[in-house]
Design brief:
Layout (H helix, E strand, L loop, with lengths): L5 E5 L2 E5 L1 H8 L5 H14 L1 E6 L4 H9 L5 E4 L1 H13 L4 E5 L2 H13 L7 E2 L9 H5 L3 H11 L4 E6 L4 H10 L2 E4 L4 H11 L4 E5 L2 H15 L3 H7 L5 H9 L1 E3 L13 H10 L4 E5 L4 H12 L3 E4 L1 H18 L3 E8 L4 H15 L3 E6 L7 E3 L7 E3 L24 H10 L4 H4 L10 E2 L2 E2 H18 L4 H9 L2 H5 L1
Parallel strand pairs: 3-4, 3-5, 5-6, 7-8, 7-9, 9-10, 11-12, 11-13, 13-14
Antiparallel strand pairs: 1-2, 1-14, 15-16, 17-18
Bound molecules: iron/sulfur cluster.
The site of iron/sulfur cluster has 13 residues, from helix 6.
Length: about 475
């Protein structure tokens, strides 16, 4: 018996188990008039939209159905790249559907790519926060960075899910490079390969920090040949050095991924023995360990949202190639909004291969579930008395991301004709303070540009390496 809500897909049919899944499913086939209206609005303003995978399902459903060429849905790193491409191919305005650090990131990358004149807007007048980004603005994080600054040969590897201000102040104190969940492992391995004495200070996500350490410890138990396949410059000895010098922050949490804790994992182990487990790197250790075990058995993946999407798609393509009746179940170990992208990606294959049935399962947090009288669905997400999500957890949907809505997007598009001063509240945050004569925007973009440099060349940029080796600890404490 299945305990959690889920979506069942076979051929062209989509069925939902439970109200939460039904709400996700309801928006997969949006009203054509709404889609046409959005397209007309975007075309009239020549606007581009970059949206995160965790958007509200109604909004995502319409975005996927709209054939305007300047629409893109992805993880935060690719959002910025696509915004630059849109500007290059003529978009006159970029609208960011995500949280505030994403719009800041898009603004910084457009500025760095010569598109400072292309306006960027968010769809809410109020700030769109993020529990994780806010934890990097705490006194505890400042103290963590001061420890890093006092340690010779330190590199701060900061998760992209932080504000430009965090990145700027951090880089002023400790040489800093940003990372995403897709590239963090290679970033740390490569940095440690280039400087074996390096201390790596990862933050702010605590679970991701712990999971990385567990992963490096696991790698350290492999033989040298297996380690070299993951990174040619590493062996057991170099991994042990890295483990000794790897630090992570202990007080940074994403309220969404926090919900995949021990109780959820117990239930998955009990009721979903046959399922494939997908887990974001930000999940707690119990879920991470379970996904690793299933991965080692060929039935799991641990990584970024893009890795999860790629894994599910690959499994379905594999089943399609085999042409035999197959039932595939996937536990979705990340924000529930991902389901729209997943269904969009696999629907065509399922229509052509009705012998495959797929179930996407939404785990519900133990602290925010209601027990029902329904034998088929005894547990539903949300507290008793009504489904819902809160910053305390619940049904794995991000309350900040959900501040973006279709109505808000259409409303903003209507306002784009108004004088610029009326649109200022929709602009990404601007920082007026300077550090050693440099603006926050300029300094905060450097760790992102270092990450881009690493992605391009496969090694830490020479300027960053020189900074790590050249900064005296005394300066760092200043
Ligand atoms: S899911 Fe929400 S709270 Fe978690 S990191 Fe993303 S924006 Fe922040």
């Amino acid at each position: 018996m299945s305990a959690f809500p889920s979506l069942l897909l076979q051929g062209a049919e989509i069925r939902a188990r439970g109200g939460f899944a039904a709400a996700q499913a309801a928006f997969l086939d949006p009203d054509p008039a709404t889609v046409a209206s959005l397209r007309a609005h975007l075309a009239a303003r020549e606007a581009g939209v970059v949206a995160h995978f965790y958007m509200d399902p109604e909004l995502q459903g319409v975005l996927y159905a709209c054939d305007w060429p300047h629409i893109h849905i992805s993880d935060s790193l690719v959002m910025a790249d696509r915004a630059v491409e849109m500007a290059r191919s003529g978009a006159r305005t970029i609208i960011v559907l995500g949280v505030d650090f994403m719009s800041e990131n898009v603004r910084a990358m457009l500025d760095a790519s010569g598109f400072a004149d292309v306006p960027v807007y968010r769809v809410a007048a109020a700030p769109i926060g993020c529990s994780l980004a806010e934890s990097a603005e705490s006194d505890a994080y400042a103290a963590y960075l001061r420890r890093a600054a006092a340690t010779p040969r330190s590199l701060h590897v900061v998760y992209i899910n932080t504000s430009l201000r965090t990145k700027a102040y951090a880089h002023a104190l400790v040489p800093t490079i940003t990372c995403t969940s897709s590239n963090v492992i290679q970033t740390v391995l490569q940095a440690a390969a280039q400087d074996p004495d390096l201390h790596v200070w990862f933050g702010p996500d605590t679970y991701m920090g712990r999971n990385l350490l567990a992963l490096f410890r696991g790698l350290g138990e492999l033989d040298d040949a297996a380690i070299a396949r993951l990174h040619p410059a590493h062996d057991r000895a170099s991994l042990l050095r890295l483990i000794e010098r790897f630090h992570h922050f202990e007080q940074g949490t994403c309220v969404v991924h926090h919900m995949f804790g021990a109780a959820v994992v117990e239930q998955i182990e009990r009721d979903y023995q046959d399922a494939h487990i997908t887990a974001h790197l930000e999940v707690p250790g119990e879920m991470f360990a379970l996904a690793l075990r299933r991965r080692d058995a060929g039935r799991g993946v641990v990584g970024s949202t893009s890795d999860i999407l790629g894994f599910i798609t690959a499994k379905i393509r594999e089943a399609a190639a085999a042409s035999t009746p197959t039932e595939l179940r996937f536990v979705l170990g990340t924000e529930a909004g991902m389901v729209t992208a997943i269904v969009h990606q696999i629907r065509g294959v399922l229509r052509e291969h009705p012998q495959i049935s797929v179930e996407i399962i939404f785990p519900a947090a133990s602290e925010a579930i209601a027990i029902t009288d329904d034998h088929a669905l005894p547990v539903v997400p949300g507290v008793a008395g009504g489904e819902g999500c809160s910053t305390a957890g619940g049904c794995a949907t991000c309350p900040y991301m959900k501040m973006n809505s279709l109505d808000a997007l259409l409303d903003l598009l209507d306002r784009l004709d108004r004088p610029a001063r009326e649109l200022r509240v929709y602009e990404p945050r601007k920082y007026l303070d300077t550090i050693d004569g440099r603006t926050i925007a300029e300094l905060g973009a450097l760790p992102i540009l270092h990450m881009r440099g690493l992605q391009r060349a496969g090694e830490l940029p020479a300027a960053l390496l020189a900074d790590i080796r050249g900064r005296a600890p005394a300066h760092r404490l200043g």
